Automatic annotation (TrEMBL):
Gene3D superfamilies xrefs: Periplasmic binding protein-like II
Highest taxon above the source species: Bacteria
Keyword entries, A-Z: Signal
Protein name (database record): Substrate-binding domain-containing protein
Lineage: Bacteria, Pseudomonadati, Bacteroidota, Flavobacteriia, Flavobacteriales
Species this protein is from: Flavobacterium cheonhonense
Length: 308
């Protein structure tokens, strides 16, 4: 009788051990990703979310992969990376020397892939017929000078890349200045500016080129302004041609930052962004790809007429 109890105990323990090992193995297998399959989380600067969503949709269709995009402000994305919450991110600037040193101190060597040229766009309600603005006027307004054509500047987020971009340009923190306001997202900025005459919105141009369906009505109510640089003789709109030729004064590069440290989906998605198909998606979006995709031209010796 005693032996039966011991045998049952041993068998029960053995089964529990097998179940535990199988569970751990299954969990481990589910968490593993390769360059073309598995799951990965990518933190994305919110000002460029639409184009990354387009790239994600095609990448997931082509491969057995699932990418979870987490839109955040620039500061939030960087903090997540330094706190080891995020291993993959998309930014509107390269990492600084100090940031690279901080990663290397943690034995992390970020793989950085530039993949497109984007623009910080200035927008105004269509109730105003003025579609041009001088960058010097924006700088003067931030510095406290009264500019008749500007009632206020509206940014997406106090910690965003657009705030950092203008702050670097002006040389002072713009979000601490009079009549400079921050909301939460680019969508909120577009909606606000569409209904408030005289306010200038500062957004990523991709939100204008490819707005969500529920934002289209607000986009139709704003004008993207042509900007005259401080040393330019003419105004330039953030068109694809002007971005490619360096004529628009508020252009910026986009970067994919991969800190995974192994050949996972971060590497795969980076290769996709910089490859032929990913660059074509950039081109179609209205932004400027890092490398212009090739075009195949068919040359025929003879031209034949179709028979009716």
């Amino acid at each position: 009788m005693m032996m039966n109890k011991v045998a049952k105990t041993v068998v029960g323990f053995f089964l529990l051990t097998l179940l535990f090992v199988f569970s751990c193995q299954k969990k481990s297998e589910e968490s593993v990703d390769t360059i073309i399959e598995g799951k990965a989380t990518i933190y994305v600067d919110e000002s460029i979310l639409p184009i990354i969503e387009d790239e994600q949709a095609v990448f997931e269709t082509q491969y057995n992969a699932k990418l979870q995009l987490v839109p955040k402000s620039e500061n939030e994305v960087l903090n997540a990376m330094f706190n080891d919450t995020a291993a993959i991110a998309v930014l509107t600037r390269n990492l600084t020397k100090e940031e690279l040193n901080a990663f290397q101190a943690k034995k992390i060597n970020p793989k950085i892939t530039p993949f497109a040229t984007d623009a910080v766009a200035l927008i105004r309600s269509k109730t105003s017929k003025d579609t041009l603005i001088e960058l010097q006027d924006v700088i003067d307004f931030i510095n406290g000078k009264s500019i008749n054509s500007i009632k206020g500047l509206v940014f997406d987020n106090a910690n965003s890349s657009t705030v950092r971009y203008l702050s670097d340009l002006v040389g002072i923190p713009v979000n601490n200045q009079k009549n400079v306001f921050s909301l939460k997202t680019n969508q909120e900025v577009i909606k606000y500016v569409a209904e408030h005459d005289g306010m200038i919105g500062v957004v990523g141009i991709n939100w204008i080129f490819q707005p969500p369906l529920d934002l289209q009505e607000s986009v139709d109510k704003v004008n993207v302004l042509g900007v005259k640089g401080t040393k330019a003789a003419t105004f330039a709109f953030p068109t694809q041609d002007n971005l490619a030729q360096g004529k628009y004064p508020l252009a910026r590069h986009l970067y994919f930052v991969n800190c995974q440290g192994y050949s996972g989906l971060g590497m795969g998605f980076a290769s996709f962004l910089g490859g032929e198909r990913g660059q074509r998606i950039i081109l179609k979006s209205g932004l400027v790809p890092e490398r212009v995709p090739s075009r195949k031209i068919m040359i025929r010796d003879k031209i034949t007429k179709d028979k009716n």
